Amino acid sequence: MTNESAEHILSYGKLVTVWVTLLVLTAATIMVTRVELGVWKVWAALAIASIKSGLVIAFFMHMKYEPRLFRIILFVALFTLAGFIGGTFFDVLYR
Amino acid sequence: MSQETATAEGGFWSDSGKTGIGSWIFSTDHKRIGLMYLYCVLSFFMVGVLLGVLIRLELIAPGPTIVTAQTYNALFTVHGVVMIFLFIIPGIPASFGNLVLPIQLGARDVAFPRVNLFSWWLYVIGAVIVLVSLFTGGGAPDTGWTFYVPFSARTTTNVSLAVFGVFILGFSSILTGINFVTTIHRMRAPGMNWTRIPLFTWSLYATAWVQILATPIIAITLLLVVTERVLGLGLFDPSRGGDPIMFQHMFWIYSHPAVYIMILPGMGVISDIIPVFSRKPIFGYKMIAFSSLAIAAAGSAVWGHHMYTSGMSDLGVMVFSFLTFLVAIPSAIKVFNWVSTMYKGSISLEAPMLFALSFILLFSIGGLSGLILGAASTDIHVHDTHFVVGHFHYVMFGGTGFAFFAAAHYWLPKYFGRRYEEKPAIIGWVLMFIGFNVLYFTMQVLGMEGMPRRYYDYLPEFARLNFVATVGSWIMVAGILIVLWNLWRGLLKGEPFTGNPWGGASLEWSIPTPPPTENFEEDPVVTHGPYDFKGAGVP
Description:
Chain A: One of its GO terms (cellular component) is plasma membrane. Chain A: Keywords: Cell membrane, Membrane, Transmembrane, Transmembrane helix. Chain A: The chain crosses the membrane at residues 12-32, 38-60, 72-94. Chain A: Pfam families: COX4_pro. The complex is a heterodimer. By secondary structure, chain A is mostly helical. Chain A has one domain (2-94). Helices cover 79% and strands 0% of the residues of chain A. In chain A, helix 2 packs antiparallel against helix 3 (40-60). By secondary structure, chain B is mainly α. Chain B has one domain: Cytochrome C Oxidase, Chain A (Up-down Bundle). Helices cover 67% and strands 0% of the residues of chain B. Classes of the chains: A mainly alpha, B mainly alpha. Chain A binds chain B through residues 69, 76-77, 80-81, 83-84, 87-88, 90-95, and chain B through 185, 209, 212-214, 217, 243, 245-246, 249-250, 253, 300-301, 303-304, 311-316, 319-320.
């Protein structure tokens, strides 16, 4: 497993590209707050945040190159988190 | 792996001749860490029992009796915090899990022994902070163990320090969970496939996932309470745009799954004990194993049933009520399978089995009374009454507490190399069982009659049953003291406990007593299931 990970040392170019994308998305998060989107404002912020965390997890945390078991474990965690957020929002939306 | 009687050599107790406190508090041996957890959780259990007795003494008669109203508020808050965060949550997983899990898998230790030690240290640090919070600042918290806003954000008592202590305890729990998941995935002995893992370890696997996934939510929630108190952010304050119900969501997103952190390991203990004392392989092994995962999964989606009267949306109430009923299915699978295991078995009523049998009855009563609370229509009538207090004590103490004592009587002789006396253990169990029901069944009746929980005083018509409940607490505590005294005396000075007297077929019964430092003299190869008594060669 260690060898498998070691084979995928990311190039500086790729790392910088991901970093710049994260900066752009951060700017997008701020800009979204200035647009009147109503209830969709929260969803937009959550969507951008999800893409950003996805990039960090995939490249900076190397998950794209890890074995399948690790990706399943990550999926379980994300699914659970989505369930927690979904259940809470479900109440707020229909209150 | 030959059967040896290594009591004289002391097994892991001698640990290459190392002695003194340093050989314990800096040890990375999972057995020593398990025992240190055990001593800590038992100490806090006794503190919790004392506080519980004081609560019951205050309620023995209407009006002020032994403490003031403010002290009473602190008593039930600290009783809850100590029992939940310092006893029940780490109780079985961190103590018996550490003692037993690696051996049941055929491993020499957990995957991350140093992280394991670190987790114990975090537990101790968190516990000390919680204890310090009782005597410093504005005094012991008076919010109830749930720390509900807006009161917790405004009270002058020492809530900030107490929740910070709980925050640290959460990290201890997460680290134990990560360690157990990794150990089960990576450290199994050759031949130990997933369907040969003992059901206690299976239950710890499901528990560990809940610890990892749900505990961070309580950590951030409690930090938000601190920021609310210190910085006045208004996150939960409606006058500043906050939402107090959001706190309840976030609190219960952890604290309901935490109920399964508490009960699942108890169910695992029972699943290991029932076949051994029935001399029969477990009935429905796979269903019990998978029902642990199903309970962990379904139990993580039902937190809203604590909030039916909070002002949550009606649709939310209906959905959470429906989901709550789903949890009953895997829970019932376990109960039916335990009973089926005993059917036509050669049942031996020794102390571990008696505690296990009482678990089944008490947990079932707790579970069925839970259905009354899970149904929104009936919950509204008994919400925040003593019915709820009786219900969760049936599940938490009648379930997890009795399973804890079952585990103590079943496994501790293996680790100490000495055994307790059977007669006092049974006398203690009888008193605990009778006292328990007198105390908590009476509470449920009081709740049905309308007595609210957490109230300092009550109407005269509740006086008789409150007196009965308090007498029940004395009987139960007498039983607990006899059981603990008998265990303490027996494990230190009792008859030698050698070989495999219970006739267990899982790996911990195939190694010397007490276990050696690295558990196995040579790496085991597993050739039979954990309940295959013929395969293990035990009669």
